[in-house]
Sequence to fold (353 residues):
Amino acid sequence: MKNIILTGDRPTGRLHVGHYVGSLKERVSLQNSGEYDEVYIMVADAQALTDNADNPEKVRQNVMQVALDYLSCGIDPTKSNIFIQSMIPELAELTVYYMNLVTVSRVQRNPTVKAEIKQKNFETSLPLGFFCYPVSQASDITAFKATTVPAGEDQMPMIEQCCEIVRKFNEVYGETLVEPKIVLPTNKSCLRLPGIDGKAKMSKSLGNCIYLSDTEEDTKKKVMSMFTDPTHLRREDPGHVEGNPVFTYLDAFCKDEYFAEYLPDYKNLDELKAHYQRGGLGDMVVKKFLNNVIQTELRPIRERRNDWEKRLPDVYEILKQGTAKARETAAQTLSEVKHAMRIDYFTDDNLLK
Ligand code: ATP
Ligand code: MG
Fold:
């Protein structure tokens, strides 16, 4: 069996450092590992429209931005197919068939869907398309027979639901689809990076992000304004590192060598944390250090983005070619699905018999 990756992001905004540590970084290293036969990276515009139906211009503008973010992070178009979801109608067709295999109550129990309905205040105005997005995500994954989905922790319930659909489909119609596995970041702090406001998740929709494309000055402003430990009022007070996003970001980004370079009074993060917990270490010192760390990590990404921004026609071509290749694969799977479901009426004359 081939090793195949499918993953993606909603073009609801530019990508942020949560995406980077939660999924993008892993994708780049899997892409370069040589262990994967095919890599598909999807700009999920159809999914973005499920809760942005009245704002199509936002989705459209961000398709190119997300593609630029991918390329800046090191997604290599010679190794990975970057494609646009809505340009592959086969995905929507698969969703129609899969919807028959899922109950409403099962989607209602999906914890990520539940949390997002609450976060978006949908209550009585929940779009049906949004409610169904776990099913459409199962189409995206299975259309490419993906074995591996590098994603953040919030995607675990989606992959679980996808596997249930695969098992049900194969059981009813015969072995056709492949069950995927999620690959989560190994660093626990990257599973769900909090926002700069201390909210549980950095998210485009919550406006609490450091974007990969933010300028050096904007990034610095955001870091210096970050929520920290509200009980750590004076420098000498003992502070908390758990639930303190400044330390969570350091857990996610910091390497020991950054101490030698930017904060030589400490050898490593454990020493810095111990001092903060003891008291006597001000937030400003920690934030300044974090700013240096983040700037060092983001600088090469920003530089690559500057180059790609000058080559927009090339980015357009990359999207076009990636989409064409992805469509071929999805069409092949759809024809296998329809054959298994016995709805391939005109491929032979069996209907006459
Ligand atoms: P939206 O608010 O529009 O849903 P988002 O910021 O949640 O946007 P998505 O496009 O939904 O971003 O998520 C894309 C990928 O990035 C998923 O794999 C998701 O798990 C991961 N991801 C998103 N936010 C974070 C985060 N804060 N920490 C770790 N991973 C994240
Ligand atoms: Mg999301």
In short: Strands lie at 4-9, 38-43, 81-84, 148-150, 181-183. Residues 304 and 326 are 25 Å apart (CA to CA).
